[in-house]
Amino acid sequence: MTRSRVGILIERTKSQYIRQGSGSNVKLNIRTRRAISSQASGVAIAVAVAQVFMAASAHAQQAGQQSWHLASGPLDRTLVEIAQAANVRLSYDAGLVQSLKSSPVEGSYTAEAAIRQALRGTGLDLVATGSGGLTIQKAVAKPAAAAPVAASAAAASVGPVDTTLPLISVAASRDSGGTGFVAESSSTYARSDVPLSETPKSVSVINAAVIQSQAAQSLSDVLRNASGVVTRPGPLGVPQYVIRGFTAENLTSDGLATVGSAPNVTPTIAISSVEVIKGPSAIVNGNSPPGGVINIVKKTPQADPFHEIKVGYGTYGDTQIALDTTGAITDDKKLRYRFIVSGERVGQNAMGYDGQRNFYFAPTLQWKDSTTDLTVGYERTVDRQPVPQFTVGYAAGDIYRNYIDRPLGVPSDHFGAQTDNIFFRLEQKLGKALTFVSKGSYTRTQQTQQAWTEATPLSATNRAAFFNFDSISDYYSWSFQNYLRAKFEIGGVKNTVIAGWDFNHYNQYQVDTTTSKFIFVPNVFGPPSLPSSDTGNLAPTFASRYTETGLYLQDQFSYRNFHALASVRRDTYLTGTIGGTASPGNHQNAYSPSLGLLYELTSEVSAYASYNRGFRPGSSFQFGGGILPPQISQQVEVGMKFNLLDDKLAITTSAYRTSFSNYNVADPRHRGFYLPAGGAVSRGFEAEINGQPLPGVNLVGTYTYNDFVQPAGTKLAVSLPKNSASLWATYNFQTEALQGFGVGTGLFFASGQYVDSGSAYRIPSQVETDLGVFYRKKGYGLNLSIKNVFNRKLYYSSTTSTLIPMGPERTVMLTGTYDF
What we know:
Mean pLDDT: 83
Number of domains: 2
Helix content: under 10%
CATH architecture of the largest domain: Beta Barrel
Radius of gyration: 27 Å
């Protein structure tokens, strides 16, 4: 889509927070039980490692000339990268550089010389301003003395300080992948940097700017800003996400498939953005759920230095501390690092269970020159979650209108996980038009479950039955992607062709208690009467293996105002289980095509349509023998995309119909087996808006209408609101006296919904109101976040009347940041 950018101001210092001007739209494309006791020593080691990295980074910044390795590319991006890396003040009219390509910059140059090299052959000149900055103008035949005067006037028109975009830290601005709340592209869908405005599909991207402005504490908080997504806190400690009516199983991390709970508990300080690709997305993940894929994009090393310390304290004794540091290690800035460590500890939750514990440790190294971009890293996540607060239904109908205010069992009942992940990513240029991309990860996760869950609704006398969980699951997974990406032009048609191979494999081993307990409690609201769920007697009960290989071909091509994205993927699946007796391997194959078309009606408005097909191998057993059939999904979607106000405001609307065959539901009479439930159709409408409609006002909003239809017979318990909406808006005070202060407010609405597949239990409609007050000045930041300001009873979606999760009461969190 045609871009119009005027008056760009680029300025970087180590201790300054960015406030970009109302006309700017620059994309900064510098892209268990036994483990908790080790966190204190881990933090000490982390701080020591960080000091070494920061010292190396400081040394690297002292050089005069710098070594540059910048290939020819869009001129505006090259100028941004040079100015940012060299910490120089550069102002220019964006219209001058639009659609121009830079010359390669290779060798040792000062910042000015590097910019002049990039400008070669463009008809533009670099001149100094009267204030000591730099600007760019057309090369004209006039006396040299006149240039500084003209340049000074051009720079003055930009202004020295702008406070219109969100008041966020330098790190959040760098990692957001766009300007303010507007993200420009998805790193996952299409496996290339196709602008969202040219993508013929609904893709939600919540970037670091939104995450920081809301003081989001979890992935669940972040996903409130995506249309069509519903969160269900699970009875086993890990939230479940539903997209357009269908469960989004197993998130992806930087585009790679995952198993286990680690992605769900990634601290937000480590997240660059969260992407939601709506509908079957086989090109992203061959084993594609019909609703879509949620992908977490992690922060990556940066060439220019940044170091941030973050501390927070809130309700229930929630204490947080984190460090995010990045920069160059070598003088030529080819070798870079990023190091993130964070810890969180909560006293108790509302039900009186011992609170959350979370520790995250992630060092990353990157080598980046003109042809090679290699990143390697390691992550350790140790997490302990209490039983989520919940309420229950009565056998006669209706629900108890409050959460149970005491532990059911012992306060130490919990769900835990420890994950170690080693990963790499390589982009190797093989010529001007061809790039080889390879990335992979090896992950080991151990998950523990120790808790009681209600097995029956409440009687009239508040009597109910409970059974216990006591198990350990171990996951070992490998995930690899390898593909060639070619960019070329034939007859005016620009093509980006991708051909590749994916491989995913995991083994799961589970041990469970040999002494399961089933206990009736006379009065759930009386004195605690349940023993510890930890039986101490565990034995192997289950093992499974899963292997998937995929071959795919994709072409993204553009001709004038017309854009298309077509792909086909062939997957081969091998699944097997062991349940006392080993099962033979189950081989399945599938082709998954997709096609999307988009046409730019004007420079600001586009219309698109797409068709996608998904496949999930049958792996569920029915009682009496046999594996249930594979699950096949199809989606048709049409929509409009608007990029308004010089690309400062983005709006997407979409209407969809997703059909799904061969859904499976748990067999109520035979534990561990499933019943076929036919199919389902989900249809609806979604709208999203994000950006800056007025100076100082930044917002992100969504609306969702979803109608989930099932045929007669065995039905899937869905429990979804038909209507939901959200709006988060911030305002930065524009007066000089209040410069740096801002406020934010959010409304999150869900219509009433039935629990389970019947009509005996209904969750009422609800609105949550959030409030934020923040201050950003130089290297400091404060954020006071109040969630559920009016202390309303909030209910999450649920598919069973025996556990209806409830949202928190009013919570307050004060967060402070210091960057240096």
